[in-house]
Design goal:
This protein is mostly helical and 240 residues long. The protein has 7 helices and 2 strands; from the N terminus they run αααααααββ. It has one domain. Strand 1 and strand 2 form a beta hairpin.
């Protein structure tokens, strides 16, 4: 009788064990066969693609759209800035007699700071002494050709301040250069944002790979010095 009861109990436990299902979280190792270097390179080239490669498809669109918007801003601000420089130069050629030869932005800024290179033609009233570039350099103890040769190619004259339209021309010109500087700030910020977007994607790929791969990203290593018995020197061994 006891043997029959024992057999029944053993049979019941065997039946329960046979129906027990052991589940394994496959998500923690789903990327163990993926190329880690490839995912990092993809995220640096185009943010979001590294995440997509590792199976995080919902992260692709936010990174892609952000990067696209930043590229539009970067390129747009650069070409708008170039247009402002070109417009400012052409305006100075027309109203200040600047040489048609393309000049650097530093020279164009100098043209905005001083009414003339060597004295305003037809100035009847007493002008501000700083309106004359050459005189300003002399008072500062600098040679007049320190930054730009004192030649006809680097001459300009906005005209006498006795005529309001001349001053108005200078203000319009200065406003063009201010717009250029704003566009350059936008350009620099957007370039920084493009880099930051890639850094964020790069770090995100490292996080995803660490959480979904059984392989370790890094290995611990130690540099151990070993000295010669006679004290003549030492060698370093790298231990992983």
């Amino acid at each position: 009788m006891n043997k029959i009861i024992f057999s029944l109990v053993l049979f019941c436990f065997s039946s329960l064990w046979a129906q027990t299902v052991i589940s394994v979280d496959e998500s923690i190792s789903r990327n163990q066969n993926k190329n880690f270097a490839l995912s990092l390179g993809a995220s640096l080239l185009l943010p979001g693609t590294g995440e997509y490669y590792l199976g995080e498809k919902e992260l692709l669109k936010p990174f892609i759209w952000t990067d696209a918007a930043l590229w539009v801003t970067t390129l747009g601000s650069y070409f708008i800035g170039e247009k402002y420089v070109s417009s400012a130069h052409n305006y100075a050629v027309t109203h200040a007699g600047v040489s048609p030869t393309k000049k650097s932005i530093d020279f164009l800024n100098t043209v905005a700071d001083f009414r003339s290179r060597g004295g305003v033609f037809g100035q009847n009233s007493n002008p501000d002494m700083n309106e004359d570039y050459n005189q300003a350099m002399i008072r500062a103890g600098k040679p007049v050709d320190k930054d730009y040769p004192n030649t006809a190619e680097y001459q300009w004259d906005w005209g006498s301040s006795d005529y309001p339209e001349n001053t108005e021309h200078m203000e319009i010109y200065k406003n063009m250069l201010r717009n250029y500087r704003v566009s350059r700030i936008v350009f620099q910020v957007s370039v920084g944002a493009l880099i930051l977007n890639r850094v964020v994607s790069f770090l995100d790929v490292m996080r995803i790979y660490r959480a979904t791969s059984s392989e370790k990203i890094t290995r611990r290593w130690d540099i151990v010095p070993q000295f010669y018995p006679d004290g003549s020197g030492a060698v370093f061994s790298l231990k992983f």
